[in-house]
Amino acid sequence: MTVTAVIGAQWGDEGKGKLTHVLSKESDIVLRFQGGSNAGHTVSVDGEVYKFKLIPSGVLHPGVRCLLCDGVVVDMLTLADEIVTTRERGAFRGELQISRHAHLLLPYHRIQDIYFEEAKGKDAIGTTRRGVGPAYADKYFRVGLRAGDMLRPDFAERVRAATHRKNVLFSGYYHQPEVDPEQVWSDVAPTVELLAPLVTDTVILVRQAVANGARILCEGAQGTLLDIDYGTYPYVTSSHPVIAGALSGTGLSWRELSRVIGVSKAYNTRVGAGPFPTENTGEAGERMREEGAEYGTVTGRPRRCGWLDLPLLSYAAQLSGFTELALTKTDVLDGFAGIKVCVAYERNGSRITWPDLDPDVLDRCTPVYETLPGWQCATSHIRSDDELPTAMRGYIRFIEDYVGVPIRTISVGPGYEATIQRR
Ligand code: IMP
Hints:
With 423 residues, this protein is of the alpha/beta class.
């Protein structure tokens, strides 16, 4: 039995999709453990491009069982659409099941996300507006509907009652139009027929997979610095992208983890508001955005770009106990003469290496950079470690030495073949 977890080490968008897609081919079971349709990854198989927000791309592989586990929030409309579209394209080759405990995201959650963001004005978080925060809020307020509720005969009544409760908030607090409970039900009703048969006790399936010695892959969404507890609160998502989320969100135990892969870009990006000490709003950041096509998969927003922040990467590595790192998009730095890397912060005259993620504190930290030589040559064609330019090997070693975790995978381009595996 092996349990591999892929965890975002930054603010999401680290290129986890490519890695999980490759790893899922060698897995028996793929577990999505947190987040919802705020995530997005694009995969291409045999020249066909697929964009998924909820379904693990493992469904494209025959025989792979994919589970949306307890910690996920399931947008009924998005999930139904992804299933139908993938089936129509004849590409749904694996299996998909949904935990009966996973919370449902209904159309009113999306509306609430928009009302909430607009009411916050200049303090808006810059959410993906997919309703993920409101769905988790209902979960913790203990008023949410769960996937298992779809199997109850009074599910329609529950949806109408939940919509009525939202309307009290919408009109009374947000002073916004109410939503029609009948409309909500008529929107989601057609998806129940499709989704209800997929609902099951996924914890039993996970425990059986462990007992049978299966190869298990935990697919993280978002990244460590967006964790609701360990991220730059309140500029965070509402779930736990750290390794602890992979346990609480699935029913796996810590004893079962074999490999925890932290995924980091060779630089940093962030989409939405919040502190970003190494953000570069000048020519370097602009170049990273254009070379790296740094525009959000879900929202299309331009991502903020900047140099790699090693204190933050080291923080992520310690929180999740990364056993290895995957460094992605290194090719984006191919043309830079010098590569800056943040090794510490300066605040009130002192040098700090342990980051305080409180936005008020992090915003007032000045990064201390070291500049390493760039390699200034194309690298996307390279497939083996020893063909890498010396300067790039130097950059990789610098990161490994700082974080204390080996970089085992290097992604030098968007294609699956553009990957270097190191021993
Ligand atoms: P929410 O998850 O939609 O509530 O958004 C909260 C914050 O997390 C915002 O800054 C989003 O831009 C960010 N976020 C959520 N999902 C992702 C993701 O998959 N990649 C990058 N940022 C994300």
